Amino acid sequence: MGEEAEEKPKLNIAKLSRMPVKLVMDENFLKLSPEDRIEDLIKGIEHRTCAVVADEENRLLGFISIDEIINLVVPPSDYVLVGIDAIKEAHFDWDRPVKEIMNTRPIKLSPNDPLSYALGMMLETGVRQFPVVEKKRVVGTFSAQSVIRLLRIFSR
Question: Is residue 3 part of a domain?
Fold first, then answer.
């Protein structure tokens, strides 16, 4: 009796790592203007991990990640801060414009950057969300969730 042939994985990591960011970026991103209020940000970000602050022509002015929002809030000492629900309950100035809290110099990706570069940036910097910019215009966002979506598709 011969041994059964070992099943090879369907997922080719080398091939995936060369795929461009544009194939997995989120093109349906939350876009805000600098004068939009933090309340607009909190309401809009509910099922997302980041928001883009851009002008009328989609030029990137700033970027806000969920991590930056969480850092705005100092949790009460009697409970641990977890998730967006805790942020909604927090007491801070909801009327402040998002321009006061946005990152004006985020690390940007290009839609043609390979996934290996984007993942390397995540690992090197600890940043988990990036704006994707082409010809000075925001065309999407890239996050760890983007990679997870891709892996789910390829693992079927």
Answer: no
Sequence-distant (≥ 6) Cβ neighbours of residue 19 within 8 angstroms: 114, 115, 150
Per the structure, the count of domains in the chain is 1
Query: 80-100: b or e for each residue (b if 16 or more CB lie within 10 Å)?
Result: eeeeeeebeebeeeeeebbee
Is residue 111 included in any domain, yes or no? yes
Give the domain CATH number at 98.
3.10.580.10
At 79 the pLDDT is 52
Strand 30-32 versus strand 60-65 pairing type = unpaired
Give the Cα separation of 69 and 40 in Å (integer).
13
Range list of β-strands (E), 55-123:
60-65
Pick the closest to residue 70 from 97, 38, 107 (CA basis).
Answer: 38
71-to-54, 92, 103, 114, 138 alpha-carbon distances in Å: 22, 12, 13, 30, 25
Could you list the residue range(s) of the whole structural domain that residue 53 is in?
13-154
Q: What is the pTM of this model?
A: 0.80
The answer to whether residue 149 scores a pLDDT higher than 60 is: yes
